[in-house]
Amino acid sequence: MFRLTAGRHSDTFGKQVFTEMPSRIAGSGLVRALTFPHGPERFLELVAPRFALDEVRAEVMLVERPSPGSVTLHLRTNRNWPGFRAGQFVNVTVEIDGRRHTRCYSPACSEHCDGRELELTVRAHPHGLVSSHLNARARAGMVLGLSRPAGEFVLPDPRPDHLLLISGGSGITPVLAILRTLADEEHPGRITFIHYTQHRREHPYRELLERLSRDHPRVGVHVIGTREGVAPGGAHLTRRQLSTLDADYLRAEAYVCGPPALIAAARAIWEQAGAEQRLHRESFLPVTAPVSDEGGRICFTRSGIEVASSGLSLLEQAERAGLSPTYGCRMGICHTCTTRKLAGRVRDLRGGELSGEEPQDVQLCVSVPAGDVELEL
Amino acid sequence: MDDPRATLTAEQLDALGEELDALRKRLMDDLGEADVAYIRNLIKAQRALEISGRGLLFASFFPPAWVAGTAALSLSKILDNMEIGHNVMHGQYDWTGDPTLASSRFEWDTVCPADQWRHSHNYIHHTYTNILGKDRDIGYGVLRMSEQEPWRPRWLANPLYALALATFFQYGVALHDLEVENLGKREAQRPRRELLAGIWKKVRSQTLKDYVLFPLLAGPQAPLVLAGNATANLTRNLWAFAIIFCGHFPEGTVEFDELETAEETRGEWYLRQMLGSANLTGGPVFHILSGNLSHQIEHHLFPDIPARRYAEIAKEVKAICERYGLPYNAGPLHRQLGSVFRKIVRLALPGSGPASPASSRDGDGAQGEVATEPTPALAAG
Q1: A125: nearest Cα among A256, A289, A259, A229
Q2: CB distance A36–B209 less than 8 Å?
Q3: Tens-digit pLDDT profile for residues A70-108
Q4: Among the four residues A107, B83, B121, B203, which has the most C-beta atoms within 10 Å?
């Protein structure tokens, strides 16, 4: 159901040829010299949008809308994708109205899926620009930018025998990747999977989970509707509920991913039992910095200097911190002081616009920090 | 006519600044998919022209192929340098977050290294536009382009210098940041060795590509490919020179001195950009080929707004000029270029007195009488 062969898309065959073309030739010294200064990529990407020598890019092959407010994207990456370990996340870059936006998602597929296929499920958040966009506009043929995978929320080798997997809401994706990986490995031990969702009928992986529990008798699947209140032991994570679903839960290696309240509840239970070393957790909600021009700290990552923001422009604050960034006009026209902002928001002194939180280039001379900011300086 | 610099009160200047800031904000808020699609399509067109141009040149034994190939490669270089390179490096597409359109990472098909260009052009020229002694675009360090530059016998060759600069314009641009005229003087501020190393590296790569590798790949047709590549570079040089010299040197554009611009308000800065620049009139294709530098006035007001937007705001900028009684210097290429050439010839001769007051009218024949006399402030400076 979730697998897809690229061959089914005959219109992308031409692109495949270019994508498969050995990068060695394109990256050779002669080709680089002939295509100077732009480089071979800038020519090849015109015909093969997924082609890149180093960058990871993926093409959307199939779009499914398994439940209202969720979209599942089946991607095929280019050759630069190194593969991932179940539970890891990847930064996905999408272009919306001409601007690039980067968000973090965890693939929901098994780490044993075809090395270049990837499955992402994105739930639309009411104020989420990227998630809403993908839900409304994702279509086959769309090209996304990907980072290399990262994250420590992964299974150890060898696999623990007894596993407890817990997820809440859209935190299901990394946990599901772990579950599907174990299922592919025909894991001999016991696995208990508990998923909290508002309404059981509406969560995007209902069919898949039903199939998994049918095909793998050692996997116990429990989906709890937090707005339904019919589950044994209540609608939320408690000791009582856990012992009902898996009496030995404290002996299992536990993996939990979900909203902060779920993580906090799990942490309290495992800490009280003195078993916190068996609890592996990942919060899927981004830590949103409060939008405020007051206070905040500026971290200059290259020089390792951190200062409290004085409210002046980033350029002046960097200079007062003893740094000497290159600059020109100091009035926002020449872009000489443009520097990578790694995290946090800045306000443009000219129009008062507030930037997004993702990494992006900013003009130091006309930007003031709005809360904590990290600069590559 | 009164000196346009002196006609506005401080309040009017502040109002002018606010009006233009508001126009800038309105444009910035409106940027989106269409702007990115435009520049990407243009890049595609340029890459297609480059590939077909170089491809056709491999069939150079067939003369029409040589002509078509050379024409395509010339167009490719013009688009790459002007509407793409110049504008992308201004940061016009930095808001997209696309690394291939980032001003700090873009490199262009000419011998001038992008980072040096961003310093000499984006910073020096655009910040200190038309300020004598600061804006090194006035004469490029090799021409006498201002009455304020004292005449010496060597300026008799001014037209020859102009011809040489036009022919080798990409090298003139590349050496721009070195401040050749200051060799041996202390004023040169940036470490020369570093700049030279950068230029040398870029010249080497450009030469290798156009004059060694592509001719060699063409085997027996090597001389024809080499000639085609050289012609394309020359065509781009002449075209870029013509467009750029029409930006600030036609009669009617105003020069400033360091004293009067030492403490400028936002409004005064905008005013200097408008008075120091001149537009070229023409059709949409002409505007694209000129890199929209035909909208030099709008470009100097908002150098980091995508150039395709300049045509859209030109009417509004002109209306603002009319309302404040300011000249809006615009004319067709042949007239502006003729005016520049007359200036080059006139300044070759001694006598730094004021030129005969030339009236420069814009394309529609509306407003636009402008002063060319040096002002008392300039004469004192």
Answers
A1: A259
A2: yes
A3: 999 999 999 899 999 999 999 999 999 999 988 889 999
A4: A107
Mean pLDDT on A13-28: 56
What is the number of other CB atoms lying within 10 angstroms of the CB of residue A148? 13
pLDDT at B6: 74
* Same-domain check for residues A180 and A255: yes
Same domain, A62 and A137: yes
B51 Cβ under 8 Å from any chain A Cβ: yes
Q: What is the DSSP letter of B312?
A: H
B81 within 8 A of B236, measured Cβ to Cβ: yes
CB contacts of B43 in chain A (<8 Å) are 42
- Please count the structural domains in chain A: 3
ipTM of the complex: 0.84
Residues of A whose CB is below 8 A from B25: 350-351
A33 inside domain: no
For the stretch B33-53, pLDDT in tens is 999 999 999 999 999 999 999
Side chain identity at residue B380, one-letter code: A
pTM: 0.85
Does residue A357 lie in a domain region? Answer: yes
CA–CA separation, A48 and A18 (whole Å) = 6
Tell me the CATH number at A111.
2.40.30.10
User: Do both A306 and A209 map to the same domain?
Assistant: no
**Predicted confidence (pLDDT) at residue B372 exceeds the cutoff of 80:** no
A172 domain-assigned: yes
Give the residue from chain A lying closest to B91, CA to CA: A335
Task: Give the three-state DSSP class for A162.
Answer: coil
Q: In terms of CA atoms, which chain B residue is nearest residue A332? A: B304
- pLDDT tens per residue across span A111-140: 998 889 999 999 998 888 899 999 999 999
Domain containing A333 equals 297-375
Contact B104 A361 (CB under 8 A): yes
Which residues between 204 and 243 in chain B have a beta carbon less than 8 angstroms from any beta carbon of chain A?
Answer: 205-206, 208-209, 213-214, 217
Choose one of A254, A283, A312: the last residue of a domain: A283
A138 belongs to a structural domain: yes
Check: CB of residue A110 under 8 Å from CB of residue A184.
yes
* Residue A10: pLDDT band with limits 50, 70, 90: very low
Which of B209, B203, B149 has the alpha carbon at shortest distance from B175?
Answer: B203
